[in-house]
Design goal:
71% helix; 134 residues; globular; mainly alpha
Length: 134
């Protein structure tokens, strides 16, 4: 049995901005290029409603900003908004979204050899806090 879930275009944009923005924040914090690629692959590999939204071809991801702080302001707010939206309407998909973003952030943090830099690790904690703020 299939359940139809509908999101507005704005809701979908918020989810995409939040997820891809999280990987962008990891890049801005100095995560290795190979890790960023792995983070994007993790987002593209998502399943369920979240997977369909993240895989859709769109031009609605806009991440302007001239500093990491400006980028973070937008992305962290989008992460919290996405979790609130999904938590209220589709709790199972909220867990799916959170898990997907966490896998992407972990993948973006870098290779398994050694620890990520302190800056990259701090950014990952900030992203997790935004996901949990909803």
């Amino acid at each position: 049995m299939s359940i139809t879930i509908t999101l507005t275009d704005q809701d979908k944009s918020t989810l995409r901005t939040a997820a891809y923005g999280a990987v962008s924040l990891m890049a801005a914090a100095g995560a290795p290029h190979k890790g960023i690629t792995h983070g994007c692959v993790a987002l593209a590999s998502a399943t369920g409603l979240v997977g369909h939204v993240l895989a859709a071809k769109s031009k609605d991801i806009h991440l302007p900003g001239k500093s990491v702080a400006e980028l973070a302001d937008q992305v962290l707010a989008s992460l919290t908004a996405a979790m609130s939206l999904l938590g209220e309407q589709y709790p199972g998909e909220a867990d799916n979204f959170r898990g997907t973003v966490l896998v992407a952030v972990e993948a973006a943090a870098g290779p398994r050899k050694g620890e990520p830099s302190p800056v990259v690790a701090a950014m990952a904690r900030t992203i997790i806090a935004a996901l949990d703020a909803a």
